[in-house]
Write a structure and sequence with these properties.
By secondary structure, this protein is an alpha+beta fold. The chain has a single domain, classed as K homology (KH) domain (GMP Synthetase, Chain A, domain 3, 2-Layer Sandwich), CATH 3.30.300.20. About 45% of the residues lie in helices and about 25% in strands. A 3-stranded mixed β-sheet has the order 3-4-5. The longest helix is centred in the first third of the chain and has 20 residues. The termini are far apart.
Length: about 140
């Protein structure tokens, strides 16, 4: 948003920053992507002694990190969409160990707190696709 200000017969354009939570800084995007890679590698290579994590392929679709870099919301989806609740509970249980593994490989002052959630975008896009298909008929 640009605001025109008239001062002493001179016209100045002031750029006003809009606070919009959907806009992420370049740093948030980079740290989120780095966290996504580190968590994926940790789930693939480390053993967590949990049958739900061990026996299922888990996709990390997105990592949203807060502007203060203290909290990270990790969106996951198990392959095939089965056992979502059990996998989500297992991931939230081992989040402390994951945080410790990640802290060794990332250069942040403070490693963010990890909060896992099921990614709903696949189901949402499927619903939209069905609605559009019904409109065509």
């Amino acid at each position: 948003m640009i605001i025109n200000v008239m001062t002493n017969n001179f016209l100045f354009n002031k750029k006003k920053k809009l606070k919009n939570s959907s806009l992420k800084s370049q740093r948030q995007l980079k740290v989120g992507e780095e966290l996504r890679h580190l968590i994926s590698n940790a789930l693939l290579r480390e053993s967590f002694y949990d049958e739900h994590i061990k026996n299922n392929n888990i996709t990390i679709t997105e990592v949203n990190i807060s502007p203060d870099m203290k909290n990270a919301k990790i969106y996951v989806m198990p392959l095939g969409g089965e056992n979502k609740i059990e996998i989500l509970n297992s991931l939230n249980k081992v989040s402390g160990r994951l945080k410790k593994i990640i802290s060794k490989n990332i250069s942040l002052r403070q490693t963010p707190r990890l909060n896992f959630e099921i990614d709903q975008t696949f189901e949402y896009s499927y619903k939209i696709h069905n609605i559009l298909e019904n409109i065509k008929k």
